[in-house]
Amino acid sequence: MESRKIALASLIASLYAILVYILPMTSFLLWQVRIADSLLPLVTVLGYPAVIGVSVGCFIGNILAAPWGSSGLNFLDALLGSLVNFVAGYTAYKLAYRRGFSRRLAAVLSQVMIVSIGVGSYLRWFLLWAFNTDVTLVVSIAGVLPGSLVSIFFLGLPLSLGVERALKTTGYRVDV
Question: How far apart are CA 72 and CA 155, in angstroms?
């Protein structure tokens, strides 16, 4: 990776981790709106450095702010969350990087589904282990879905469109 791409990945990772750290009350548990996830659609504009950035940023943010009361659960959450972000980011990158709006829309909706199903699938166990709260898998996924729609679709899609417009105005190219 070129130094410019490493810097971009580092910037996105930092932003993601900071947003999780300063907003833990909205970033965890069953009904979450993880504002940091609004950075996920940036992979459709910024490419692979953004995939790395949202994955590493999730790992760092979850390690620092996870509310599970156990360093082992915090680490597991960081590992699983960053894996989900990598899959969501890489999938959207492959679907829509530097392609039209319809591809970007499909990519962002795939991210919403991947994050909702991925995080919802393991979140139910974390709630049981940390707080003795037993919810079904369907409820766990359904709890994550609305927040993912807000953060990834309603915040992240316009953010990615704005970043793309700004990059076109300045003539900056990530893949050069």
Answer: 32
- Kindly report the length of the chain: 176
CB atoms closer than 10 angstroms to residue 154: 13
pLDDT in tens, 64-96: 999 999 999 999 999 999 999 999 999 999 999
Gap between the Cα atoms of 19 and 23, Å rounded: 6
**Rounded distance, CA 18 to CA 140, Å?**
25
CA distance 114 to 125: 18
Burial class (CB within 10 angstroms; exposed 0-12, middle 13-18, buried 19+) of 118: buried
pLDDT digits (tens, 9 = 90+) for 142-174: 999 999 999 999 999 999 999 999 998 987 776
Residue 22 backbone phi and psi in degrees, to 5: -85, -10
d(CA 46, CA 57): 16
Q: Which residue has the higher pLDDT, 25 or 98?
A: 25
Looking from the CA of 144 toward its CB, the CA atoms found within 13 Å total: 26
pTM: 0.94
Which DSSP letter does residue 149 get? I
Q: Quote the CA–CA distance of 64 and 134 in Å, as a whole number.
A: 25
